[in-house]
Amino acid sequence: MAKTGNENSLGTAEGAVMGRATHALHADSPVLNDRWAIHLLDPATRLQIQNPEPSAGTNDWDDFDSAPLFALNVGSLRYAEDEVERCFRNGIRQYVILGAGFDTFALRRGDLCDELRVFEVDFPDVQTLKRKRIEQADAAPDAMPTFIPVDFETSSLAEALERSSFDPNGRVVFSWMNTIPYVSASAAESTLREIASLSAPATRIVLNYSCDVPLSETQIAYLKTLQGKVSQSGEPLQSRWKPEAFESMLSDLGFTVVEHATERHLHERYFEGRGDGLSPGVPARLIVAELRT
């Protein structure tokens, strides 16, 4: 895996936070106003994205237009954050972020994190780099998450959470955004099974996944190029699901699907009428599901 990148290119964790920082700095109306993202960048990248030209950090990946993918990713994070706020209003006080990368929810959401305990789950090397960047930042975080190191292909999420202050008897909201396509289908299903087995009834999960649906020739070409790009970075896309199969799997694991949205729903909710034309252009599905009592 290359989530932390190398001397030649950013990994996905750093690339994603670079995009969010650029969007927060330069978009007229940020879909997600991630005011902490810039503090997690290395000095050279931070200087680069302060260029007022929007393409400095969001839209171009060499000759590849990553804006449709970025829009899906940032829209999905906003979707998850809105669900977490609903869960908080309904009394949930634990939030577990799977594949957290350089997520900044705890760092900037002091309005919730005085009462909401945030756990971040990701690869140890990603978490080590993130903690270093937080220590070096010229801003103080609103709160710090509890870091839970896990490799989804080889490690047990349940065992890792059991070693922390996570309360299995309390309701929790999980999010798993923008990373399921990078893990195998078997690892994704195993992780969801662990969540179902370790969580209290009425626990919620919000996630997105790459969907196996009919595609246009333009979409096929775009996804083929994307697969080549991420494979070159050492993080190939590994899983796609038919929507009905994903719902069936969740049902078998004890979840009731509350909402099963598309990239078009994201557009209508967060991107409609934008002057910059930013819109999710990659086929995907988003799910909110609740563990049955």
N- and C-termini, Cα separation? 38 Å
Q: Strand order across the biggest sheet?
A: 5-4-3-6-7-9-8
Order of helices and strands: HHEEHEHHEHEHEHEHHEHE
In the predicted model, the low-confidence regions spanning at least 5 consecutive residues are: 5-9, 54-59
Tally of discrete structural domains: 1
For the sheet with most strands, the description reads: 7 strands, mixed
Assigned CATH superfamily = Vaccinia Virus protein VP39
| Helix proportion range | 40-55%
User: Based on the structure given, which CATH architecture is correct?
Assistant: 3-Layer(aba) Sandwich
The chain-level mean pLDDT equals 92
Q: Count every helix, treating DSSP H or I runs of 4 or more residues as helices.
A: 11
Instruction: Note the overall shape.
Output: globular
Structural class: alpha/beta
- Rg calculated over all Cα atoms: 18 Å
User: How much of the polypeptide forms β-strand, as a percent range?
Assistant: 15-25%
Number of strands: 9
CATH topology type: Rossmann fold
